[in-house]
Amino acid sequence: MSCVVCSGLCFSVSSALLKYIGPALPVTEIILARSVISMTCAVVLSFARPAGAPPLFGRREQYGILLIRGILGATSQIAVYLAVLALPLADSTSILFLAPALTAALAWLVLGEPAGRHTLVGCTTCLLGVFIVAQPPFLVGMLTGRPVPWTRERLLGVGAALAGAFLTAGAYVVIRHVGKQTVPLTMSAWFFSVSFFTILPAVALSFPGPLLLPSPLQALTLVGIALTSFLAQLLMGRGLQLMPAAKCANVNLMQVVYASLLGLAFFDEAISWLQVLGAVFLAVGILEVNRQKTSLLNVAASEGHAAIHDPEGQHLLGATSDQDEDGLPSKVVEGVHSLLLPLKHEPHSGQQGSPLH
Fold this sequence. Notes:
Layout: H1 2-21, H2 27-46, H3 63-86, H4 89-96, H5 99-111, H6 117-134, H7 137-144, H8 152-178, H9 184-204, H10 216-242, H11 245-251, H12 255-266, H13 273-289, H14 291-302, E1 308-309, E2 315-317, H15 322-325, H16 328-340
Antiparallel strand pairs: 1-2
Helix pairs in contact: 1-10, 1-12, 2-9, 2-10, 3-4, 3-8, 3-9, 4-8, 5-8, 5-11, 6-13, 9-10
């Protein structure tokens, strides 16, 4: 879970930097710079891996599924930007955060991941928290009797937001399906490569505007966007390898809370009591979706089991690994290596790594 929580924080910082620089530079230039810088980071890190590590872009037999992951990620990114441009930010945020519920449904249909009672209740609670925090104008309009008119621009914006939510859910499920057969660095390399080639036509056509020469501060901000986004992709990739897709997407809803705090700190955006209430719903929902695994651990402990493993083969109780005895520094090193190298355990049948069905 720590990977997903830190990933959400990195995504939120990246969004805050984007909000700062957005009015000054075209969106296509920001995406292009992010893709180039992030891809450069991936290439540099690939040289830091030991001999015998898989190629940066994975094995040839994985190219198909990794390309799908890249296409889903790149197109969801474009859809998100279109939604933000066409809709009020609160509306676009609310619709885009339907992704966790869609992820749970897709993971159940495609991967066969169970959606237990705790997961369903937790997802519902988190979605309610998102709506309370975002306070979407269309919902306020229905409650006050002053609905927002459905113009063509709004209809296109809602369609783009829904597409972004579906594509994001699809990307989560594909990453979960790939499982431990590859590494987060490889999945990130495909994402940023496809993003680069996807945005090139818009850049060539100067849409929505020609490229501008950034100032030193703007250039530094672009680097910050790229680095935080790159780290977020790595951490999210690892989190999806270690957690069911629905739970991972649900925990990622903490981005709403991070965004509110960053808005208060840097953009003078006040935090209302509704946002605080929504944050409480999010926290309760996240705790709820993790109750199922906690319950499993408690049952195993009460029955006297020395150790149990989750479906991914990771120790959950007892029988600590050698890394646990080496102290914090070795854990940090192991954590960094885990982003660059495959996990030691092979995926079990019926879990991630099995054919899509």
